[in-house]
Design brief:
By secondary structure, the chain is of the alpha/beta class. The protein has helices spanning 20-30, 80-86, 90-95, 103-115, 187-193, 209-221, 243-246, 251-258, 262-272, 282-298, 351-354, 394-397, 407-426, and strands at residues 10-16, 38-42, 121-123, 126-135, 138-147, 153-163, 168-169, 181-183, 201-205, 226-230, 303-306, 310-317, 320-326, 334-336, 338-341, 345-346, 386-389. It has 13 helices and 17 strands. The protein binds flavin-adenine dinucleotide.
Length: 435
């Protein structure tokens, strides 16, 4: 709790995390006639979007028309087209005839948009806990505790909270990152610092888009390297971005999913998982196959696929990483200089920071908070303060919950709900105790 609570400001809305989701929210709120007093707390020292996967040539998997704003407000001044215009690249971008810019360019767009909201963001602040601020038995605000860059603690009070802390990197059980064992989420930073031996052997574990991108990048950048692409599938599977399948990312699909019964939800998820999970763009699959084939022609196999692989153990022995695995095509352990796990992400993890307030929430049978269609956590009757989630709602709102596809629309829906809630909540008395 704040040491000098009397001087503590109470915000109408506080965002935890300032990635694309809460950036889209900041823009949506700035376009509303109603002005809410807002702040965002972001762990990193500056704005960034998956910086360690900004691999040269890697392209977006969503059309630039699904930027931070266009599906919600096509005349917003924060669109990708507005960015291109001010960057004086509009015509040259159009000449490429693509809907899918490189991730590097999209990152520049996001940075450009974020720069307009610098005054609302406190960077270098890691939120560690959220507590309930009680006033005569009612929870009227949330107390958000964060750790700053030098370990200093601060607490911010807010009537409404929007948690958008993003996906959590996932590793197989028992695997820990180290100098020689990386997760794809820190790929480029680690690669910059890596001192490879003369003829490095590298294993890339996983069969999704990130695994394929990393494999292709290493193949191109490290000519002396021998790369093992290790996965449990038979081969890379193509992501389905055909028109009917793509409808699963439309805003309408959120309603279809949200109001469906549990069995239909599970079926929908299963049917459409290959639009996003463990699936790779066709061009990239073809590029990798071409490279592997030309290796067989030249007689120097630099890219080897170890498919149907079941990994049982990963450990460091001296300056090598030993991967114990069983595969029809590899007899015995695989010893490499570097193992990169592109094994994906878990949905947004709110359990840690929200744990102290769960007793004020309505929980489902699984013990997790129930979420309204407007992404607001259902709370007990004595709670007037609100918590919204951007991400982590795959089970209630469907596959687009953590993706950019629906970010503009979702942020608009939350902004509308917040403006209603914020206005109502600001009329409630919040007594701030004197020190
Ligand atoms: C390599 C890669 C490429 C992708 N490409 C696409 C794509 O092309 N299309 C698509 O639709 N989706 C894509 N995704 C999915 C991705 O989830 C979204 O692109 C997007 O990042 C979601 O935005 P977000 O703001 O919800 O989460 P994030 O971008 O992850 O942002 C969350 C922010 O919260 C901050 N944070 C976390 N914890 C705390 C804390 N405790 N306190 C304060 N701050 C905190 C983080 O530092 C981060 O800045 C991709 C994902 C990856 C990993």
């Amino acid at each position: 709790m704040p040491r000098n609570a009397a001087q503590t400001e109470i915000y109408d809305a506080l965002g935890v995390g300032f990635g694309p989701s809460n950036l889209a929210l900041a823009i949506a709120l700035s376009e509303q006639p109603e002005r809410l007093r807002t702040r965002y707390l972001e762990r990193t020292r500056q704005f960034g979007w998956h910086r360690d996967m900004l691999i040269d040539d890697a392209t977006m998997q969503v059309s630039f028309l699904k930027d931070l704003v266009t599906p919600r407000n096509p005349v917003s001044r924060h669109s990708f087209v507005a960015y291109l215009h001010q960057a004086r690249r509009f015509h040259s971008f159009v000449n490429q005839k693509t809907l899918f810019p490189t991730r590097i360019e999209f990152h520049k767009y996001l940075e450009w948009a974020a720069s307009d909201f610098e005054h609302l963001v406190r960077y270098g602040q890691t939120v560690t806990e959220i507590g309930a601020w009680q006033d005569q038995g009612a929870v009227t605000a949330w107390a958000v505790t964060a750790t700053g860059p030098d370990g200093e603690l601060s607490t911010t009070l807010t009537r409404n909270l929007v948690v958008a802390t993003g996906l959590t990197p996932s590793l197989p059980a028992g695997v820990r990152t180290s100098r020689r064992i990386w997760h794809s989420s820190s790929f480029l930073s680690n690669l910059r610092d890596w001192q490879p031996p003369d003829r490095p052997r590298i294993a890339v574990i996983g069969a999704g888009q990130s695994a394929a991108e990393i494999t292709a990048h290493l193949y191109k950048q490290h000519e002396a390297a021998e790369i093992y692409s290790v996965y449990s599938r038979y081969g890379y599977t193509q992501s389905d971005d055909s028109p009917y399948a793509n409808q699963v990312f439309d805003p309408q699909a959120v309603d279809d999913f949200y109001y469906a019964d549990q069995q239909t939800k599970q079926s929908l998820y299963r049917y459409h998982a290959n639009t996003n999970y463990s699936a790779v763009d066709q061009d990239l699959i073809e590029e990798l196959y071409r490279r592997q084939y030309s290796d067989t022609v030249s007689g120097r196999e630099r890219l080897r696929v170890v498919n149907l692989a079941k990994i049982s153990q990963v450990r460091e022995i001296g300056d090598k990483v030993r991967i114990e695995l069983s595969s029809p095509h590899l007899d015995g352990p695989l010893d490499v200089d570097l193992a990169i796990f592109a094994t994906g992400y878990r949905p947004m993890d709110t359990d840690g920071i929200l744990a102290p307030v769960l007793s004020h929430c309505d929980l489902g049978e699984d013990g997790r908070p129930l979420i309204g269609r407007d992404y607001r956590i259902a709370t007990r009757p004595h709670v007037t303060a609100a918590i919204y989630l951007q991400g982590g709602t795959e089970a209630s709102h469907g596959i687009s919950s953590s993706l950019l596809s629906n970010t503009a629309t979702r942020a608009g829906e939350i902004a509308d709900s917040l403006t209603r809630t914020g206005r109502a909540a600001t009329t409630l008395p919040v007594s701030v105790p004197q020190e």
